[in-house]
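EI: anyone free to look at a 339-residue chain?
SC: sure, send it
EI:
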Amino acid sequence: MTDPLAAQLAWARSLPPGPEPRLPAWTGEGLRDGDRVVPVPASVERSMPPVRVGAERWVVLTRAPFGTVAPAILDAGGGLDPLPRARGTLRSGIRVPEVHVSPDGARVAYGVLAVDLATGATTELPHVPRELLGWTDEGLVYEGDPFRRGAGTTWLLRPDGSTVRLDGPDDDVRALGRGAAGFALSWAYGDDGACVTVHRLAGAAWEEEDGSCPGTHLGEVLDLSPDGRWLLTDGLPRVWDAQEGRWASLDVPGEAFADTGWRAEVGWEDAFSFLLPVLDRRPETGGYASGEDAETVTATVQVVRCTVTTGACERAGEERRTAYRQAWFLDPAVGFAPY
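SC: here you go
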């Protein structure tokens, strides 16, 4: 039986060369952002991808006492500038906390805090935030109280510090995270099979934008493109075009990627291209080890760039050996932060 990871890497190696990824990521050399390589102190927790916050600065997590982590700004020389500590603790347990940077790079959110990077002013998020989904042009979208049927209520933190509840046309509208915080999806099932509707955040409300019916089960939704058009699922080599209601095929060997599970390390590089790290080894713990018990793995990594409008894929930069510690299977340990 062919090893699927070996088959994936062989495919990646066969692709034509392309430029380095335009999103920052961890490598064996340190933090790589395009052609720039930045030294990384040993205290940096690499289970969360670095997030760019302007020219030559990145938000990272650093290891702190008692299994906690603390956010900091990493500069181009490898120096660290700690950010304010959130009330309570951010733990490096089974789920590494996410840090979100606003589109203009002026604000960052983590835990229960939103921080203005220019002034250092902090805003504590109300409504018992459980999950931060990301920034939009209108503010920070997150999930908090009240909770019902296992899901929280979606809130928008506006620039003036006020909040507004983001209600959808029905209870099944669910906001997205990563780089698509300004969008939400709702699902319906009828004679045409599974149907999905994309909602865009406009004027502090969800506005229905595109509805389409793939007619089949879409699988796990990994990410929506920054323009809300392309729905990336675990069903490679196909990507769903929510605007035109059709499948787009990519130059990806479906047999090699079938049944390989969640691929949280995938990240959209722009509105038309996504980055897919291909590894020859993954943790053997099943991905459920936590904190310091998580297995450290050294893998060969080749990042692949695929463009949905053409279907073509290419190697994004050089193949590298990278050591990483994956705390949980949802953590993009060898991946990219949101577009």
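EI: The first helix runs from residue 4 to 14.
SC: 👍
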